[in-house]
Every structure is written in C-alpha cells, then in structure tokens.
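Write out the 3D structure for:
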Amino acid sequence: MIMTRKLYYVDSHIREFDAVVLSCGEREGAFEIALDKTAFFPEGGGNPADTGTIRDVNVLYTFERGNRVIHRCDGPLEIGAAVHGVIDWDKRFSNMQNHTAEHIVSGIVHRRHGFDNVGFHMGAEGIVVDFDGFVDDGELSDIEREANEVVWRNVPVTESFPAPEELPGLAYRSKLELTEDVRLVTIEGVDVCACCAPHVKRTGEIGVIKICESVRRKNGVRIRMLAGDRAYGDYRRRAHSGAVLSALLSAPQDDLAPAVRRLLAERDGLAYKLGGLKRRLIRQEVDRIEKTEGNLVFFEPDFDVKELQLLANAAREKCAVAAAFGGDDADGWKYVLASDSTDLRSAVRDMNAALRGRGGGRPELVTGTVKATREEIERYWR
C-alpha cells in the first residue's frame, strides 16, 4: 500500500500542494479520501486536525489510518485524479502559534521545577495544560515573562528524527515511552520535546503568550493560556470592554477597579436603606389589618424570600396562617408561610400537592415554591 507523504514535516508553512488521489470511499455521509502526499495535519498530540479544500470539495476533518492520512470530505474525488489542496492557513498558523507557546511554557516549568506536562488540550478558547506539581500565581507570572522573552529573542524552532540508538543519550520531554519514529521539536536554549505536530519556524511568529488563569487540582495545577492571534483577539475584546466600562463609569480605564468598588459600595448602601424602608412599610401595612381567626394571603410580585419572610412574620400575629407569595404566573411563585398556632409541616405538604410545589421548614415557618397560577393559589386559600 502506498503511504501518504507528510508535507507538514517537510515544511510546516506549506499552505497549498498538488497530489494524486489514492483512494476514496463513502462512510457515514462523508467521503474518506487518501492522497499520495498532503499538507493537512491529522488530529494528534493534542493538536486539532487541519481543514480546508481539495479541488472543489471541503476537508472537514483529517486523521491517520495506518500509514495514510485520511481526509474526511463533503464530496468524492476520482481515484488517480491530480488535485490541488489548500489548507485553512489561519487555523493552522494559530494552532502552530499556540502549540509552540505551550512547549515554551512547559519547558520553562520543567526546567525551573521539574514538573511534567501530564495533560494538554488545544481548543478555540485557548490551551489547557495540566502539570503534576503546584506552581503559584506569582511564579506563573515570572514564567509568563520568561516565555515572552523567548518570543522576543526570536529563536529557531527545529524538528528532527533521531535514530533509535541515539535516543537513550538525549534529554527530552515526553509523555510516552517512545522507541522509534520519535520526532523531537527543539526550541533553541529552551526546550526539547517529542511531538508530532507542526510548529512555527521561529518563536517571533508567536507574537505574545498570556497565561490567563490557574486552578489547583489534585497534586498539581491546571493553567489556561493563549498565544498569537488568540491572545490578540482576547486583548481586543478586553480592551473594548474596558473602553465601554470607562465610558459608563466616567472613569479612566486604569481606574476602573476603584470606580467599580465605589459603585458597589453605593449599591450596598442603597440596598441597606431600601431594606429599612421596606421593613417599615411592611410593618405599617400589617398594623392596618384587623385580626382574624382565618388566614391572610399576600401577593408581592417583586419581593424576594427575605422580604416575604418579613411580611409573613409580621402578619402571623393577626391570623391563623400568614401566607406571602412573590413572583408571577410565568416563572412560578416563591412562598413563605408563618403561624403562631398551626403546625405548618403537614399544611405545607397538602399545599405543595395541590399547587405543584416544593418546600418545607419548621412548625412555625415554611418556605418553598409553587408552579400554580395566582388564581389557583387564591382558590386554594379560600
């Protein structure tokens, strides 16, 4: 069987190529096409598959089967035909920027701490990397700075296939115990790692590396990072958000955090004052109500649970059961029932069954929700 020649190992920057169709078969609504050579990288090593076009069909996905690279396409190509392939270069280059950036960061972490990269995923939202040891945010900030210095130095990135007998004498990072067909990616003075994916030729092509966040997990740390065009896109979105917030708050972008803190403090102060006013209003409204041996039912669509509880507790002295409901028919109603004379635990079970509700509590106070309409609630309490 003729194998596929992998042009992405010859030159990672090949965008277009000519080839001959070796096979074409339909499977699961698409066509699996093999060529005698290809620049399309198949999914592997945490790197997504390339997409693009071959002649007049779209390449939806690329993977390896045996010694051939298979292109999953939305149309057929005749066997033996000479075709022209074009990869989605923007996607490929972004993947190369981000993958090489991950090698830089992982190499620095390994050199500084001896920790290994034990998990790696690259998606549209960036790169997620798991290390088998913990690195705090301060150290990650230093690692980010060093990684960008590697970018600014614009050092070469090279690939090689050492002979099996050479491997025991070489120091390189690898997640697997490899013995043959090992491809090493070397970032000069920074890292040597076994990897099957295409990379940039010099680190300057990456542009910028940004470690966005870190989360401690098990005995290590998970970081999310961005590089190249994805880091630039993230910067543009954040810059736009900052400009909008700056205009809304009438504050320079460098002073947004203090401006937001002031705004939150003002909000909390107003909420406290509003709470006091509502408590006084509730007390005044309840004082106007005549005592009854029956029940009192209140509907306050805008009240939250705490406010409903204030209302029910204030009204319990005037009746057998005070029932306060907040919400609407579309989203359902929250409730609080309060009583000085009735054990509400059995009462609320009956109400929940009748009004499609959930909830419970103490003998003198219960809370919950019902999915009934206001009309149904009023009919039940009559």
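The helical segments are 7-10, 89-113, 137-153, 228-249, 256-287, 305-315, 344-355, 374-381.
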